[in-house]
């Protein structure tokens, strides 16, 4: 047997060992066994990684698999804790970056939990969809998912949706939370488990436009770099406040106001037009498909304006595409003033690892392929998708020295070539029909 074939067969042993890390976290042995079946299905070359096609592809009974995912009451918490422990062991770095992003799946049905017309990045506009909020992690060793939760639109908590909430097994205690609020729940939980080290947090403008979200990140002693809209208002300099002098009429003033009332804040896009050329540095942020993407980047200290009053002093980072000057992105960061520019510049590239994690999650291990309608089913499926994705990352990491250019898709291809397949004969065909 050649060394290459032995290496491929080693993958089967590696998958068994990987599953063994999680088996004790299931309450029952049959749940652990079905988890292994589901992982094999997600990692196989099955054309569609949803329940029935996977069951047929693997040659297992169809009925137990949807029950395991959608109705079985196994808890995700112990499996999630073990998953994050393994991610820390595989990718952990003191300079690691947590990231927040959402991903939508178009769903034309009416009865799946949380489904509603809403922004869906998968199609670039509003669609009838389910949307999940995901917490991920990236370091110099790679990127993967840490946790995720379904976003449930506010109308689902109306009295008219009571039957749907019950039929989809939504927790009775669940209340409406915005996506930034969900993110601020996932992130502290991961940090409390303390399995994954990190110092930074990256997120897009949906989260950066929420001062409450950024304040919550700062309270966790993380340094954030979050995108913000071009109409975010700031002051270039520190802003002085003073309590107005009491003139003897009415109440004695106690609330500080701007010392110079004419010193009004302005938008970040207006500041970008005011900055002199010496404040801009030209840099290549990412290799494009045909040529390098070159940006001019400015990093300046500003005071955030909140309801017309000065907020914290922050870094404002403006990124302008040299080839298309209308392509401008702005970011705020609570990193200390003495933070090296190179550290902030590194964070501008975080949206690429995020995209390269969520997209393979969709394409490789079925983040967007499932046949469940319930709240437990959605979270069970997504957790097993995270395990499957991290397994691919883990194998690639182990083979990094021998095959530095190996991709996740190639790891999955190699694994699927040695996964056992059922023998399809007349007896099996009759079973399938039955």
Walk me through the structure.
- The chain has 434 residues and is an alpha+beta fold.
- Among the domains are: 136 residues, no CATH class; 125 residues, no CATH class.
- The chain contains 15 helices and 14 strands.
- Strands 1, 2, 3, 4, 5, 6, 7, 10, 11, 12, 13 and 14 form a twelve-stranded mixed beta sheet that branches. A two-stranded antiparallel sheet has the order 8-9.
- The chain is globular, with a radius of gyration of 25 Å.
Topology:
Layout: H1 3-20, H2 29-43, H3 51-58, H4 64-70, H5 77-91, E1 97-106, E2 116-120, E3 125-139, E4 142-151, H6 162-167, H7 179-193, E5 200-203, H8 205-208, H9 211-219, E6 223-228, E7 233-235, E8 241-242, E9 257-258, E10 266-267, H10 268-274, E11 280-287, E12 292-306, E13 309-321, E14 328-333, H11 341-348, H12 351-363, H13 375-398, H14 408-418, H15 426-433
Parallel strand pairs: 1-5, 5-6
Antiparallel strand pairs: 1-3, 2-3, 3-4, 6-14, 7-10, 7-12, 8-9, 11-12, 12-13, 13-14
Helix pairs in contact: 1-14, 2-3, 2-13, 4-13, 5-13, 7-9, 13-14
Fraction in helix? 25-40%
User: Which residues sit in consecutive blocks of at least 5 with pLDDT less than 50?
Assistant: none
Counting DSSP H or I runs of 4 or more residues, the number of helices is 15
The backbone outline, from C-alpha atoms, is globular
| Computed Rg | 25 Å
The quaternary state of the protein chains shown equals single chain
First CA to last CA: what distance?
40 Å
Sheet/helix structural class: alpha+beta
Quote the average pLDDT: 88
Q: What is the H/E order?
A: HHHHHEEEEHHEHHEEEEEHEEEEHHHHH
Number of strands: 14
């Amino acid at each position: 047997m050649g060394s290459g074939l032995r290496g491929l067969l080693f993958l089967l042993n590696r998958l068994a060992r990987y599953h063994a890390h999680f088996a004790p976290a299931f309450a029952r042995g049959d749940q652990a066994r079905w988890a292994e079946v589901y992982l094999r299905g997600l990692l196989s070359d099955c054309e569609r990684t949803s329940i029935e096609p996977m069951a047929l592809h693997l040659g297992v009974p169809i009925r137990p698999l949807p029950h395991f995912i959608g109705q079985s009451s196994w808890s995700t918490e112990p499996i999630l804790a073990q998953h994050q422990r393994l991610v820390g062991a595989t990718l952990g770095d003191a300079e690691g970056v947590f990231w927040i992003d959402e991903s939508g799946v178009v769903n034309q049905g009416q009865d799946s939990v949380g489904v509603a017309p809403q922004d869906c990045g998968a199609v670039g506009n509003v669609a009838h969809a389910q949307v999940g909020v995901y917490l991920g992690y990236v370091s110099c060793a790679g990127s993967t998912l840490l946790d995720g939760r379904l976003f449930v639109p506010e109308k689902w908590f109306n009295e008219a949706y009571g039957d749907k909430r019950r039929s989809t097994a939504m927790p009775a205690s669940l209340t409406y939370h915005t996506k930034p609020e969900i993110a601020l729940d996932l992130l502290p939980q991961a940090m409390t488990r303390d399995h994954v080290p990190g110092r930074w947090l990256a997120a897009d403008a949906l989260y950066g436009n929420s001062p409450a979200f950024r304040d919550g990140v700062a309270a966790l002693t993380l340094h954030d770099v979050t995108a913000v809209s071009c109409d975010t208002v700031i002051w270039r300099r520190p802003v002085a406040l003073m309590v107005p002098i009491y003139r003897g009429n009415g109440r004695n003033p106690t609330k500080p106001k701007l010392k110079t009332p004419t010193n009004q804040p302005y938008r970040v896009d207006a500041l970008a037009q005011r900055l002199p050329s010496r404040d801009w540095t030209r840099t290549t942020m990412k290799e494009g498909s045909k040529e390098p993407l070159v940006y001019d980047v400015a990093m300046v200290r500003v005071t955030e304006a909140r309801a017309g009053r000065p907020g914290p002093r922050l870094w404002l980072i403006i990124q302008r595409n040299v080839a298309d000057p209308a392509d401008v992105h702005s970011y705020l960061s609570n990193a200390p003033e003495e933070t090296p520019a190179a550290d902030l510049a590194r964070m501008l590239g975080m949206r690429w690892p995020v995209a390269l994690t969520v997209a393979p999650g969709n394409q490789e291990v079925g983040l967007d392929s499932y046949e469940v309608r319930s709240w437990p089913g959605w979270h069970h499926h997504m957790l097993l998708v995270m395990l499957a994705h991290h397994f691919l990352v883990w194998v690639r990491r182990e083979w990094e020295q021998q095959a530095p250019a190996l991709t996740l898709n190639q790891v999955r291809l190699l694994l699927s070539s040695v996964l056992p397949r059922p023998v399809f004969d007349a007896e099996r065909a009759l079973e399938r029909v039955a």
